[in-house]
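> example.struct
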């Protein structure tokens, strides 16, 4: 790495740390409240997954649109635009709760999802100037940066709800307004601080071809043609779908067994701590032992997590806390290793498009998981939903084991 690149990389990581912290705090503060709001408006939990679907569709659109913007103009404009859209979306969602309109709430959550797309794409920005043997560590640093926001975000739900009620508004509108403030901070931090732009700098000093701008389907074909990128994509999709489907129904499962919103918030905080707090370990493990062993490890953790969740039929804290924590930890290993595989398994001029397409695909997979989870939960219960997650994680585990035994994926040095 050139000396000037090293200095910019350090600054880039600091800025992404700050923006990812507040960006993740925003989505964490709103996520489980949105599930409860849908249930409150419709009077049934069957469609509770709709808010997650709306947010993941927004994330999918944002991953594609923002990646194209980054291809043209760099990381700064793309990330700033995503966070700006999320500010508007959070306020729209708050208005939807206030007027008890599912349509308005879901429209707001779509825009919130665009902001989540910015937070997700930040991990790739961390890898723009990272040397090949440090890519997973750079990615995991930004994933870890979300820990503070992810853990503290849900804790704002109770106070902001009480404040909203005191001011004469709907109780559940408060967390969305809090989310808008957090997203605004992220937008300002990125806009003012991410200079010089890491992607623009990396492209201007490299000897590779000019970045090739592709739509979703052409970029997805590029990913699918590469063994390493394809396996990275599968890892991202399965890990995210398993995590989201179980997490999305956790608030309803706990509320049905008498847990308070505060206690639910603590469980979600434990889950998000598992997602982000140990990401540096996942990154170190992936760089030290390889991407496929990291996926293998993450799959084992996801299997264990969903089995523990399946045993929590009456939602006791003694099972909900470790089950949801392990669910996040397994996702962390999968997202770090899968992201690194996609990044290093395609040509440098195709990376941004491939990264965007992979995030679109994983967002769609998680959206399908979230939507179906509401029906499975309503018809069969939380334990069956968790066991379906066990089956999916076990399938990824078998695939990772076979891949680990039969082939290796060489990393591209560019």
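> example.seq
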């Amino acid at each position: 790495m050139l000396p000037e690149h090293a200095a910019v990389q350090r600054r880039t990581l600091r800025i992404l740390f700050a923006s990812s912290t507040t960006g993740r705090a925003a989505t964490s503060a709103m996520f489980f409240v949105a599930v409860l709001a849908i249930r409150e408006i419709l009077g049934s939990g069957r469609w509770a997954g709709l808010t997650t679907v709306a947010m993941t569709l927004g994330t999918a659109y944002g991953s594609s649109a923002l990646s194209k913007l980054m291809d043209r103009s760099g990381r700064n404009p793309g990330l700033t635009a995503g966070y700006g859209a999320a500010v508007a979306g959070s306020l729209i969602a708050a208005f939807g709760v206030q007027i008890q309109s599912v349509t308005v709430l879901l429209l707001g959550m779509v825009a919130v999802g665009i902001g989540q797309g910015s937070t997700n794409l930040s991990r790739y920005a961390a890898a723009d100037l990272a040397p090949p043997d440090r890519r997973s560590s750079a990615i995991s640093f930004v994933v870890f940066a979300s820990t503070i926001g992810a853990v503290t975000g849900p804790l704002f739900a109770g106070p902001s709800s009480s404040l909203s009620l005191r001011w004469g508004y709907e109780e559940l509108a408060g967390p969305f307004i809090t989310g808008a403030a957090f997203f605004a901070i992220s937008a300002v931090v990125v806009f003012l601080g991410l200079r010089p732009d890491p992607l623009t700098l990396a492209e201007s000093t490299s000897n590779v071809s000019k970045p090739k701008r592709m739509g979703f389907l052409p970029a997805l074909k590029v990913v699918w043609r590469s063994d390493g990128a394809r396996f990275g994509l599968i890892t991202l999709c399965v890990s995210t779908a398993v995590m989201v489907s179980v997490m999305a129904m956790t608030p309803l499962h706990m509320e049905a067994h008498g847990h308070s919103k505060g206690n639910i918030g603590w469980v979600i905080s434990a889950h998000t701590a598992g997602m982000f707090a140990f990401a540096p370990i996942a990154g170190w493990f992936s760089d030290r032992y390889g991407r496929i062993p990291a996926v293998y490890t993450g799959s084992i953790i996801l299997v264990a997590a969903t089995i523990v969740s399946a045993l929590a039929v009456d939602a006791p804290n003694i099972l909900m806390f470790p089950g949801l924590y392990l669910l996040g930890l397994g996702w962390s290993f999968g997202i770090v290793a899968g992201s690194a595989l996609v990044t290093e398994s395609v040509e440098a001029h195709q990376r941004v498009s491939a990264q965007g397409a992979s995030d679109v695909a994983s967002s769609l997979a998680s959206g399908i998981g979230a939507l179906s989870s509401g029906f499975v939960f309503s018809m069969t219960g939380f334990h069956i939903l968790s066991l379906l997650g066990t089956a999916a994680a076990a399938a990824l585990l078998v695939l990772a084991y076979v891949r680990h035994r039969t082939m290796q994926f060489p990393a591209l040095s560019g």
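> remarks
The chain is about 80% helix and 0% strand.
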